[in-house]
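re the bet — no i am not wrong, look at it urself. input seq straight from the record:
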Amino acid sequence: MNQDILTVLQEKMPEFSKGQRRIAQYISETYDKAAFMTAHRLGKAVGVSESTVVRFAVDLGFDGYPSMQKAMQEMVLNRLTSVQRIEVANDRLGDQDVVSMVLHSDMEKLRQTSEILSREDFDAAVNTILGAKRIFILGVRSVAPLANFLGYYLNYMFNNVHVISDFSAGEMFEKIVSITSEDVVVAFSFPRYSSSTTKGAKYCRSVGAPVIGVTDSKLSPLGQCSDHVLVAKSDMVSLVDSLVAPLSIINALIVAIAAKREKELSQTFENLERIWDEYNVYEKQVDPT
């Protein structure tokens, strides 16, 4: 279905039965909550049976209710305000144990990411980074920690890594204005998508620099302006977003790049271990015996 589901509901409203009309009106008026309800809960909220909700989804052209729910969730994730996120999360939580819900949700996002991540794009991203003259990493606001984490480890392997994570849009362009086709950009963006990251990635690509986008969909704003898209599933957890899967992809990138630079890294860390020891950078491990 290419159309926004709210548009479809509005167009089909005259065709709906009484029960279907109640479902459509409820979704239209409270889509931020409806998108995260099970078929049973949605039916209970509007006073129809679960089977009626399922048939409603099929009549709209979906394979079933899960497909319709996924479409609703994808539509709303980038629309929700922080206040709405808290309300939806509290509604989803109910009487569940918070720790169990969050951990199980994170595990599910890791499973989904493992299934959908293109190994071809991943390998291409690794080789592009290895062959670049300079590496620029873009990630602002809530994904700034991802950019800084990747930058921290890439700085052990390369001499020209630039992390752009805490600048305004104007300042960001000042940092990337010299970028060329010999460089590479790794950009992070998840709902609510940062417009400055998208604009920065578009500019870099316009001057010939390959862009590696780490985002939740190839159709996201960043995904559409990236040469290689590493899809990582994210989810809304109250005020914050789950970034477990994106962080796991970063770990995989670091491991893959390090494996191809084993000789250089061994020499670097031999020197670092000597310096760390000499200047007492880390606490000494004392044998308890």
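see?? The CA atoms of residues 12 and 105 lie 34 Å apart. told u. also The first strand starts at residue 135 and ends at 138. so pay up
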